[in-house]
Design brief:
By secondary structure, this protein is α+β, with helices and mostly antiparallel strands. It is built from 4 helices and 6 strands; from the N terminus they run ααββββαββα. Helix 2 packs across helix 4.
Length: about 120
């Protein structure tokens, strides 16, 4: 994939089976944290408000959803794993045939936005 300049371009240039997942993730970020800045960072869609909130990237069989530099807490990781998603320190893999776990994503995004705001105030 060539280096995209916009999120629309990133989605358009990705594998077709990933488009719906990425569109849903984009809408979740935009509706949950409407003041977040949407941008391309590290060549992938990324969202920022008082620090990085997260972003997503397409791979051969899944879309990887990544959260802020704080990563995922044990509790957050368990929320995703209990629903059948593979997780990493700060990522969740959403396979092309899985539904987007929107409720859990919104919950985690709001938590990370609060952490960013608190961290920013203490600077």
């Amino acid at each position: 994939m060539s280096k995209p300049k916009t999120v629309d371009e990133y989605i358009e240039n990705a594998k077709e089976e990933s488009h719906q997942i990425m569109k849903e993730l984009r809408e979740i970020f935009k509706s949950t944290i409407p003041k977040a800045e949407e941008r391309i960072a590290w060549n992938v869609p990324n969202y920022k408000l008082s620090g990085v909130l997260g972003g997503f990237a397409v791979y051969s069989k899944h879309v990887s959803l990544g959260f802020s530099e704080n990563g995922l807490s044990e509790e957050e990781r368990k929320l995703f794993e209990d629903k059948g998603y593979k997780t990493g320190k700060g990522t969740v893999q959403i396979k092309f045939d899985q539904e987007v776990p929107s409720t859990v994503i919104k919950q985690v995004l709001l938590s990370h936005a609060r952490m960013n705001a608190i961290k920013n105030k203490s600077k």
